[in-house]
Amino acid sequence: MYRYDQFDQSIVDARVEDFRDQVARRLSGAMSEDQFKPLRLMNGLYLQLHAYMLRIAVPYGTLNSRQVRMLAHIARKYDRGYGHFTTRQNLQFNWIELKDAPDILAELATVEMHTIQTSGNCIRNTTSDQYAGAAADEITDPRPWAELLRQWSSFHPEFTYLPRKFKVAIIASDEDRAAMRLHDIGVQIVRNEAGALGFKVFVGGGIGRTPMIAPLIREFLPAEHFLSYLEACLRVYNRYGRRDNIYKARIKILVHEIGAEEYARQVEEEWAHVKTLGLDPPMSEFDRIAAYFTPPAWEEGLSDDIDLSDPEFKAWVDQNIVAHKQPGYAIATISLKPVGGIPGDASAEQMEVMASLAERYSFDELRVTHAQNITLPHVKKADLYAVWQALKEAGLATANLDLISDIIACPGLDYCSLANARSIPLAQKIAERFAPLDRQRDLGELKLKISGCINACGHHHAGHIGILGVDRKGTENYQLLLGGSGAEDASLGRITGPGFDEDGVVDAIERTLDKYRAVREPGERFLDTYRRVGFEPFKEAIYG
Amino acid sequence: MKIATGNDLPTGDVVWWDGEGWTRHVEDAAEVGENGAALIAREEASRRVNAPYIIDAEMTERGPRPAHIKDRIRARGPTVRLDLNRVPIDPATGSWVI
Question: Which residue of B lies nearest to A53 if distances are taken between CA atoms?
Fold first, then answer.
């Protein structure tokens, strides 16, 4: 994985000292909250319901064991013993004290981590495929390109005060595991007919108040022009994005209002100019970065056989293991969704277990997934049983990847100052209702996503089943959506009708799934059946 | 009744105006009546508390209970981590909040 050079380290260290001074001035009363707020947000420090919340950047979701141990240390020393992995592949601590924030940033800097650009109207952490560098279906590792993006976008002077926040995702396979088309810019690495590497560029996706699937803006962008083209995309947005109305300020609104074709034309026009500025780095610079992502020293000639005589282990292998590009290896996903647990939460002790397993069994790498789980990307199949036993002991061996209890849920009204309704208790009730693994596996792949407000941090529009919590005359109410997808078959869910209370929405989901079981054809996922039979039969089942 | 709340500057803790200063216990919150706006202006100027605001509450046998669920959750803590709650083992916490 990428390692800081002297420039990265000195930039991060300098930022820590800047923030230490800013915090001291705030605590002394020399600075008002209005003056301080934009400064703390630039360092990922929010004020939530109960305390300050610190959001830590995990570039493209990649961590090593040293970093995870540091997160565990921070959880224990400065927080309340746990952290929350987010749908942006980042980590949040919920109970931070302002006076401790500079010391926390200083500790993070010692393991090449920071909180820069995890808030504000700037280019946020670039997300990617959690299986990058390991997936059997990728055409190259997308992370060197994500790292190039990180370096280009860090403190980019022109894009520090955009009309609104800006999120980029990059993948390198046809299967989309990063919700790529629900980002402001989505990039898919492809090869053209001549075999040259380049990019499909999608612009103007997003969820939130006005969900949009990003349209294709450029069919093939030659690799050597990656940054100059993105610079042009951002410049057009920076110039014409709506700064007069926060609800219309995202790039998706601009692209939608002028049309994808016209936006693409303006980008091409701007790009013709930008290309003359020499912004694209020489390929030698890309190669320097890519060298950090050289595949680990996989052993050759390993067996693909796995002893599955333990039925509980077999269930975990069947559900949480996917194919690796190297024979004899597997990609293992650690579910942070135990039935009755809090989606995405991990205790300091669990973080340390995962760090140790990564160090011993996965070439010291872990990945955060946008579905709030953790992946060990390079595990020998022969080691899977030992890994599973250690996970089981730590309460981390839930065999539910992509099943109904593998729920994405935002922090909701239990933690978040923007939320209108709680998400976590609802996720827990749904997971408990459908707890038996046989029942979950019978229902098959089912992506259920819950947001506690219209901002959609829980990706509810992209859920096969989505739930949006709203405030209805001072009480929590939940709207049900069906038919969304954040994958390569991206679609937006449709609201079924009037909302429900907490128990009512769980019952409505059960009626929805009873209908699915009644009408599905062999091999159909819930989403497939929904798309085949349409909305009405499910609405009828829900409301009678 | 009207009560005032905000977050303590150095810790971020939820605090309530008790008539003389800021307390972490909603039970001790004081009626601010018509003086809320002046209190908020004064406290914002003093820079001890973050984002203070006035809310509606009802007086109960156990003290003021905020009218909105968001402020009741602020008063007690996350409903999903009762071990972190300000009333850790109070079985009535759930019903008080919800």
Answer: B12
Burial (CB < 10 A; 0-12, 13-18, 19+), residue B66, is buried
Percent of the residues in chain A that have a pLDDT greater than 70, as a whole number: 100
Task: Tell me how far apart the alpha carbons of residues B8 and A33 are, in angstroms, rounded to a whole number.
Answer: 12
Indicate the CATH number for domain A6-109: 3.90.480.20
pLDDT tens-digit series, residues A154-194: 999 999 999 999 999 999 999 999 999 999 999 999 999 99
Which residues 7-36 of A are in CB contact (within 8 Å) with B? 26-27, 29, 32-33
Q: Rounded to an integer, what distance in angstroms lies between the CA atom of residue A8 and that of residue A110?
A: 12
Class of domain A311-393: alpha beta
CB-CB under 8 Å, A342 with B81: yes
Contact B84 A80 (CB under 8 A): yes
Interface confidence (ipTM) of the complex: 0.95
pLDDT band at B92; cut points 50, 70, 90: low
pLDDT for A63 beyond 90: yes
**Out of A27, A413, A419, closest to residue B9 by CB:** A27
| Chain A / chain B CB contacts < 8 angstroms | 68
Q: Which of B5, B24, B80, B83 to mutate to test the interface with A (most CBs of A within 10 A)?
A: B80
Segment A374-381 shows an average pLDDT of 98
**Which SS3 state, helix, strand or coil, does residue A293 take?**
helix
Domain A408-543 listed as CATH 3.30.413.10: yes
User: What is the per-residue pLDDT for A474?
Assistant: 87
Alpha carbon A397 to its chain's center: 21
Region of A183 please: left (phi>0), alpha (psi -120 to 50) or beta. beta
CATH architecture of A142-291: 2-Layer Sandwich (3.30)
